[in-house]
């Protein structure tokens, strides 16, 4: 699905899936966007557009999370938080905060790389949401970041630093440049994006929490302040809760636009595009008089064909598309390349096979934000008793449907689930024989991310188990996942082959 409504208008959200904490820049006629990826690998997705409405995924800037030892198992709410994307000195730069380690940076000559390995710019607990600024007028460089109270005991303030122009180190201890405890009614100030415009230093930063907050703007003639503030985007009488945290970009014709997220429960943080005007007082005006727009005139940019980040996959040569991410750093041998189509996943032996949330070898992609039908064909090639594979909807609670090899060598269709508070899964329906060791698996996902599972083992689709309401992780929307697993033991446990992964629009509600 694309975000376009007509040839002259678009409809929000323009990215209707979990592209959390977006930041955007323009380089020439091209727009680029990155987003949080937390503990999944590869991380730091890179999206491209020519009209700010139609986006495609062109790669990732972070192949593996570091240090390796910290991300051998899933850490769904850790890792890469709220990155900032910039272009300076003919290079692309991304800064992000790992709340347990500090501020990192990678850079590259082209958006598709090669990207450098992560460089730790500032070590510390609770340092999040960093954003750099190179001041072309003075040659000075700066960095601003927020704080995570869960790690540092501090929040609701922004700290500023002078930064070496090479972007490798900070030149001072930093000082608080915005203390929102001093602003009546403001709390959880975070996600700053730093700009220099018309002689002012601007910080765009949200407050009030991801589900209920607002977007603020701060301005000062000097980087270290003092800053004055104004709320520039809030829900008002719209159905867009917590409209905030994103990036400001200007088109070649001089139009200003703001891309931000909206928290939508199991769908994660979907991305909206807001027009930006300027009031007579010199402050920006976001959306329609400070409220989010549902539909609006398209940006004044050359028309582009409809496009959206890829979801479908035939897995040519056994390779998966760039829309997929592992739930931790991958290991060699989890997949096998071959000459035909189809993803050949190893049934990885695991002591945690009873709980998919603990497995690093689940291959995931984002849950679409609109009703849809997800289908994939599965063949269980493993002869290992207890080996199993399937299609999952994964979150704090999860459910999956797939095939399992029994102790007597037969294969059964199984449907399993785990509640949020459970430490292991159990059956969601009675197992059924699966002749031919094959099945076509389906999940119909309707309003409120209510999921209805069904399967076809050769005699048509039949429903399997109860309807399941998908749940998010702490900061991450629910995920679609492909998994193959086996009990602990010796030797290779065989493989499972997935073919023709498809997501199509659905009327299921």
From TrEMBL:
SUPFAM superfamilies: Arabinanase/levansucrase/invertase, Concanavalin A-like lectins/glucanases. Belongs to the glycosyl hydrolase 43 family. The keyword NAD does not apply. This is Glycoside hydrolase. The keyword Membrane does not apply. Keywords: Glycosidase, Hydrolase. Residues 292-324 are annotated as: Disordered. Residues 313-503 form the Beta-xylosidase C-terminal Concanavalin A-like domain. One of its GO terms (biological process) is carbohydrate metabolic process. The lineage of its organism: Bacteria, Bacillati, Actinomycetota, Actinomycetes, Kitasatosporales. Pfam families: GH43_C2, Glyco_hydro_43. CDD domains: GH43_FsAxh1-like (cd09001). GO terms for molecular function: hydrolase activity, hydrolyzing O-glycosyl compounds.
């Amino acid at each position: 699905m694309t975000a376009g409504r007509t040839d002259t208008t678009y409809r929000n959200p323009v990215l209707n899936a979990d592209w959390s904490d977006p930041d955007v820049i323009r380089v020439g006629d091209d727009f680029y966007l990155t987003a949080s990826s937390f503990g999944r690998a590869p991380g730091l997705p890179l999206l491209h557009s020519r009209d700010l409405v139609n986006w495609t995924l062109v790669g990732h800037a972070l192949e593996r999370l570091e240090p390796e030892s910290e991300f051998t198992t899933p850490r769904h709410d850790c890792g890469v938080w709220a990155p900032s994307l910039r272009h300076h000195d003919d290079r692309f730069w991304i800064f992000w905060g790992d709340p347990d380690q500090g501020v990192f940076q990678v850079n590259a000559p082209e958006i598709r790389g090669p990207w450098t390995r992560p460089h730790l710019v500032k070590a510390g607990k609770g340092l999040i949401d960093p954003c750099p600024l190179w001041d072309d007028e003075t040659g000075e460089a700066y960095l601003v970041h927020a704080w995570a109270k869960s790690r540092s005991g501090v929040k609701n303030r922004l700290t500023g630093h002078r930064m070496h122009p090479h972007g490798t180190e900070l030149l001072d201890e930093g000082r608080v440049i915005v203390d929102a405890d001093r602003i009546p009614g403001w709390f959880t100030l975070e996600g700053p994006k730093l700009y220099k415009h018309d002689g002012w230093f601007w910080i765009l930063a949200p407050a009030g929490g991801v589900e209920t907050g607002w977007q603020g703007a701060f301005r000062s003639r000097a980087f270290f302040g003092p800053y004055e503030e104004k709320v520039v985007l809030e829900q008002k009488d719209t159905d867009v809760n917590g409209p905030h945290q994103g990036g400001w970009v200007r088109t070649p014709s001089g139009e200003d636009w703001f891309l931000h997220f909206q928290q939508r429960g199991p769908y994660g943080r979907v991305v909206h595009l807001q027009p930006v005007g300027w009031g007579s007082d010199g402050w920006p005006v976001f959306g329609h008089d400070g409220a989010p727009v549902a539909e609006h005139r398209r940006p004044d940019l050359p028309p582009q064909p409809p496009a959206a980040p890829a979801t479908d996959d035939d897995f040519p040569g056994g390779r998966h598309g760039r829309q997929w991410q592992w739930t931790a750093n991958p290991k060699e041998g989890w997949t096998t390349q071959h000459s035909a189509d189809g993803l050949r996943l190893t049934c990885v032996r695991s002591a945690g096979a009873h709980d998919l949330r603990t497995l690093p070898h689940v291959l995931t992609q984002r849950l679409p934000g609109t009703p849809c039908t997800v289908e994939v064909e599965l063949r269980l090639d493993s002869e290992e008793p207890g080996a199993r594979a399937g299609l999952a909807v994964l979150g704090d609670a999860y459910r999956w449907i797939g095939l399992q090899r029994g102790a007597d060598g037969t294969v059964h269709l199984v449907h399993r689930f785990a509640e949020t508070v459970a430490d292991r899964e159990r059956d969601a329906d009675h197992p059924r024989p699966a002749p031919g060791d094959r099945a076509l698996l389906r999940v119909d996902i309707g309003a409120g991310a209510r999921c209805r599972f069904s399967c076809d083992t050769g005699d048509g689709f039949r429903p399997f188990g109860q309807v399941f309401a998908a749940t998010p992780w702490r900061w991450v929307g629910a995920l679609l996942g492909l998994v193959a697993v086996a009990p602990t033991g010796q030797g290779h446990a065989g493989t499972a082959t997935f073919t023709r992964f498809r997501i199509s629009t659905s009327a299921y509600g």
